[in-house]
Design brief:
By secondary structure, the chain is of the alpha+beta class. The protein contains 5 helices and 4 strands; from the N terminus they run αβαβαβαβα. α1 runs parallel beside α4 and α1 runs antiparallel to α5 (about 100-110). It starts with a helix and ends with a helix.
Length: about 110
C-alpha cells in the first residue's frame, strides 16, 4: 500500500518515537529482507524514490508470502532520518515497537483497509 500524506507523517512520527523509546528496528534492504524471511518483522516500510527500483522490488511479494504488512512512503531520506540515521534508508522493519504498540496496530489497520 502507498501511504497518503497524513499516514506518511504518522509513520515518520511513529518511527521517531520507537527509536527514542529504545524500540527495535532494522534498517536497510538487506537487514529488512533477513528479518522478514525469519518472520520477525511486524511492519515493513520502504521508500518509493529508491533508484534503481529493483532494489526493493522483491519486498511486496516477500511480505505477502510472510504475511507482513507493507507500506510505501515517498522519501528514503525522510525514512532514514525518522529511523534514527543520518543517511537515507531504502527500507525499515519494525521488530519491537516498545510503548508504541497501539500506534503500530493503528497503522497496520489503516494499511489493511
Amino acid at each position: 500500500m502507498e501511504a497518503d500524506e497524513a499516514l506518511e507523517k504518522q509513520v515518520y512520527s511513529f518511527l521517531e518515537r520507537v527509536v527514542s523509546k529504545g524500540g527495535k528496528l532494522k534498517r536497510g534492504i538487506n537487514e529488512v529482507t533477513k528479518i522478514v524471511e525469519k518472520g520477525q518483522a511486524q511492519l515493513v516500510i520502504f521508500a518509493g524514490d529508491v533508484n534503481p527500483p529493483e532494489i526493493v522490488s522483491h519486498l511486496p511479494m516477500l511480505c505477502r508470502d510472510k504475511k507482513v504488512p507493507l507500506l510505501k512512503v515517498s522519501s528514503k531520506l525522510q525514512l532514514g532520518k525518522s529511523a534514527g540515521l543520518s543517511v537515507a534508508a531504502s527500507a525499515v522493519a519494525v521488530i519491537d515497537a516498545k510503548d508504541e504498540d497501539h500506534t503500530l496496530k493503528e497503522i497496520i489497520a489503516k494499511i489493511k483497509d
